[in-house]
Amino acid sequence: ASSAETLLKVGADHVTKGMGRLTEAIMTKGEGSYLTLHDGRRMLDFTCGIGVTNLGHCHPKVSKAAADQCMNLVHGQISIAYHQKYLELVENLIPVMPDPSLDSFFLWNSGSEAVEAAIKMARYITKRQNVIVMHGAYHGRTFGAMALTRSKTVYFDGSEPLMPGVFPMPFPYWHQHNLPPTTSEDELVSRSLYQLELLLQQQTAPTRTAAILVEPVIGEGGYVPAPPSFLKGLREIADKHGILLIFDEVQSGFGRTGKYFATEYSGVRPDMLIMAKGIANGFPLSGVVTRKELTDQLKPGQMGGTYAGNAVACAAAVACAEVMKEENILVNTQKRSTELFAALERVRQNPAVGKHILDIRGLGLMVGVEFASPATSKYDVAAPSPNAPKNMASRVAKRCIEKGMYLLTTSIYEVVRFIPPLNISEEDMKKGCDIFAEAVEEVVK
Ligand code: PMP
């Protein structure tokens, strides 16, 4: 086999620059909460491949289920016949849905495809064209999903024209209203809902609006949970106008927030729920669930894809559903979440660094820490404008990597995001928190 140096040169010379990378390294093995790199380094993984390997890398039960399926049936095209694991997966998903009305599933490979399928269906069912999305939203990078994504221009800049009929509104995140971080949730929610009412009067008439698409915890846009009153408000407005409410739980689903779906925190029933990532712990699989009365309006053949609901991925997902129960994953998530929040709070209490932390927020193990920045320093009483350090989030993340832990930032704000495995041990959680605390101290020194 070629040396790591040779392979890294292949990467540098022949793998597109268009795919960004945090580090120039080769992952050679994944085990639980750790990744091994080509040079032997063992990295604590607080990214989970962006919220995917929720049960840790290569969970033995999940990997075995996939391996067994590989020896039995790899590809069973859904337009030819069902395969066993597709149906077993649906059977396993029904009882964990946040609302019993969500009873009709279709499976895909990636989050983006599922998002596109949901929008395609919403337009067809409602016979309306337009879709309302949130500023800061991330829904993917395929052509339709890219048009719905509003977190950073790099995702679509220069590839326009985008799919028309997308109308963004502000999410209840203080940045988006140019208000201080101390602004009350009620105030942010009422401002966002007011903007939605304006949008429906001035830009997209309700009779032209097919759907409102929202992440219950906005991911790329800053790791901010949607206040339950916001989702309730969206539900009321959607109901009033016959607009479908679609929740993108691609990142927040499957236990990430300490409940099976983040939707459960608000009790709001979406008309469609989009899932991916954690569903199969790394095997490419995604899905949309909605009401049977809606999907029954579709024509056979309208939805489909060669690999949609692949048998190996479905077998892995069935095993994931079993592990979620057998290993009390939600309980572990909540315990580790409490420890994580307490550790982050201790960092904030440290007088040397605390003044640089604007906010600690999140649900379960989907947690964001926002640093003060020159852009936000006008709101920061403790660190007046000239002293606000630049690029804190990326500098802290880089320092964590040097110290042996992968940590991600979010899109345009100074936010680092914690997405550790949901079955991480208490010891590894402590280790990650210690690395973070040291990294922040070193960066602000
Ligand atoms: N929606 C959300 C909320 C996501 O976080 C992502 C991926 N980060 C997507 C959609 C797109 O999923 P995929 O990358 O699998 O296409």
From TrEMBL:
SUPFAM superfamilies from the UniProt entry: PLP-dependent transferases (SSF53383)
Name of the molecule in the record: Acetylornithine aminotransferase
Record-linked PROSITE patterns: AA_TRANSFER_CLASS_3
Organism: Schizopora paradoxa
Any one Gene Ontology molecular-function term assigned to this protein's record: identical protein binding
Known cofactor(s): pyridoxal 5'-phosphate
Record family assignment: Belongs to the class-III pyridoxal-phosphate-dependent aminotransferase family.
InterPro entries with a match to the protein in the record: Aminotrans_3, Aminotrans_3_PPA_site, Class-III_PLP-dep_AT, PyrdxlP-dep_Trfase, PyrdxlP-dep_Trfase_major, PyrdxlP-dep_Trfase_small
Ranges that cross the membrane: none
Signal peptide region: none
Keywords of this entry: Aminotransferase, Pyridoxal phosphate, Transferase
One Pfam family in the UniProt entry: Aminotran_3
Entry-linked Gene3D superfamilies: Aspartate Aminotransferase, domain 1 (3.90.1150.10), Type I PLP-dependent aspartate aminotransferase-like (Major domain) (3.40.640.10)
